[in-house]
Structure formats: C-alpha cells, structure tokens
Amino acid sequence: MAEVIKRDVKKGGEGEKVQKTAPKKTTKKAAEEPAVEEKKSSMLPKGKANGLRVAAVILWVLAIVAEVFAILVFTGKLELPLPFDVAYISLGFLAIDLILLIIGSQLWKRANHKDPASEKDKVKFWLWNNMGVLVAVVAFVPFIIISLTDKNASAKSKKIAAIGAAIALAIGTICSIDYHPFSQEKQSNAEAVLGDTTVYWTKGGSRYHLDQDCSALANSAELLGGTVKEAIETDGKDYLCKFCAKKHAEENEAYNNLVYGANAEAPATE
Length: 270
What we know:
Strand order of the largest sheet: 2-1-5-3
Low-confidence stretches: 17-44, 264-270
Order of helices and strands: EEHHHHHHHEEEHEH
Oligomer: single chain
Largest sheet: 4 strands, antiparallel
C-alpha cells in the first residue's frame, strides 16, 4: 500500500512516513484467506482504469452529439432564436464538442498508463493509445465536409464554419495524442528490475524516483512511497526519473531502461 511521506522542504531531509489509509483489522477469516484479499487488492487499479475508460467513452459520445447539433443548426434543420449567423452558432456547439473530446482523451490516456496494453502489435498498440485521435476525426470531419458542401449556406458562412472546425480538429488531435505511451512489456521490465524496492512520486508529477532527495523533488512537501507496481497502477507514474537513473546507473545499468525513450528489452547505451 502506498504511503504518504510528509517532508520539511526547507531542510530537504527525509520525511516522516504516514500510511495513506488506516490499516484494516485482520480477522481470523481474513488471515485464513490471504490469497483472496491479495487478489481483490490487485484488481482495484485495473477496475479504476476501466472506470476512466467508460467515462472517456461517455464524454466522446456527448462530443459527437454536440457535433450533430452543430450540423443541424448549420444546415437549417434546427433553428435557434439567436441573433447570430448559423456558422457562429455551430461553432459554439463545436467548442462544446472540443472540450468534451479533450477531457475524454485525457481520461483515456490516464487509464492506459494505469492499465497498459501490449505493444506486440504496433499498429493496434498505437490505435489503442491514441483512440482520442480517431474520435477527433469523427467529431469534426463530418461537419467540415457538410459545411463545405451545403448548397443553402453562404460562402462566408461556409468559410467561417470550415476554418473554425479545422482549427478545432487540429487542437483536438494534438491534445488526444499520447506522446509517451506505456506498455505491458515496459511495466513488466520495471517490476523485474525494481521488484519490491520503494520508489517515490508526487501526485502532480509524471515520474517515479529512487531517492527522496532527488533534485526533481526538492520543492515537494509531500511524497508517495511504494513499489513501482503501485506507482504505475495507482497513479500512472510509469517512467523512472532520468536523474535517478543516471545517479544509480553504476549500481544497476538496467535502470537506464526505465527512463522514457529507452528500449524495454535491453539496457540503453550512449
């Protein structure tokens, strides 16, 4: 179970470890069935990841619904009592579309870092990690095509709507790409290298660390400590801090493998 470590930032020393949640009392029945308890605990992070994916899909569906409203307004099939050109009203719906798309994509990426896919099939792996990009295409391209081909809309309205939708598509795509995808193979490699070694991370950070006094944690008053499996599955901290890897490389060259961009199969060389 991950621990909260409160530190005096000014002193920079090691902090006091505090359990994140109060330990449960062990009953006789629980003691007799340790395997069952352990199995339930290991299932929690994956269940949380699935919950994030469900939330992402719901938001994506709502994003596409917003696009449908934009299309209906632009084509005149839905009239709203607003004193604006249909192009601007449609862009309002597309703005909602974009917001829902981005939030959904962030949740999807977060889930994939807690419960990563295998990278054996490179194409499938990329598509799974960048599902938000595919949704972005569905959420904006149909509107762009319809706005450009609608015979009843003015040239000005077509131009405004198409350019606005194209910008939204670009922003949505950029925000939906996972630039640091994580995989089952990389997680297995990290667990094999570190085992039960205690690592440290922060809620707002993106990496885990080998040392509490790492320079990257200098301004962090509160750290979380646990195994690398907990760091990955609980908070999505899936890569080792490059400073920690460099500092401890002489002890174990395999640490270089755990930094983002390194080969998961063999130690990275420079």
